[in-house]
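As noted in the main text, all predictions were made from sequence alone. Below is one such record, for Helix-turn-helix transcriptional regulator.
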Amino acid sequence: MTRISLPGFDLDPDATDRPAVASRLQVADHDAEIPVHDHRKGQLILALHGAVTCEVANALWIVPPQCGVWIPGSMPHSNRATANARLCYLFVEPGVVGLPLHCVTLSISPMVREMILHLADVPQDYPRGGHVERLARVLLDELVQMPAERLYLPVSDHPKIRALAAALSANPADRSTISEWAKRLALGERTLTRLIDRETGLSFGRWRQQLHLLVAIRELAGGASVQRVSESLGYESVTAFITMFKKALGQSPTRYFAARLRNQDSAARGD
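Prediction:
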């Protein structure tokens, strides 16, 4: 059993056997990071504002505003939030409802978000069989209906892949070719190409583009401008960056976040 402790936030999620409990977290003036840990309960990390990145199950998961990442119980993970983040954590008792047995990013409807926020405002030891427990069970029934979004980057335990992921995460503007990366990693180009495909299921180009997409969402949610993000990712023009973003998510960065800001306004009581 693991206790989560951050400034202004203290919760032992496994201290209760209620079907679901929730708690809020506001990150102010600094990034907040929870190192690798696990707990018996499954966890939904909901971003009300800003964003959070989770590393779990050989992948990096990004949680933009009005989305949540579902992490099944007893699965080791770490979380890192942007400095402007407002989060809500929902912990779910195993076996209560048929949530996935794997990690997934979910698009959260305004109704489900409001139900989670309400649950965060009540005592975690709420009475059995009462109104709050009935609300919690309806919330979980609704949660399983939420659509999934492909906002993750596959990263395996292979040391070469992790070294590549760490280097590109530290400097996403690096436009080195796969041949150049192969030399740095002391591998042949064809060997590295096959390794990336085998370990991630993606080509090198697709894999790096997905990393760029996750970095872009995190930085834009943290308040950076489209121009700044485009430059930080090494794009030759803002237009090229917007084209990549729109191709991946169906909307330009401005429209993508405008839709989330509209939902965020109705969640103002989470301030």
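The domain at 4-149 is CATH 2.60.120.280 (Jelly Rolls). The two ends are 30 Å apart (CA to CA). These features were considered when defining construct boundaries for the mutagenesis experiments described in Section 2.9.
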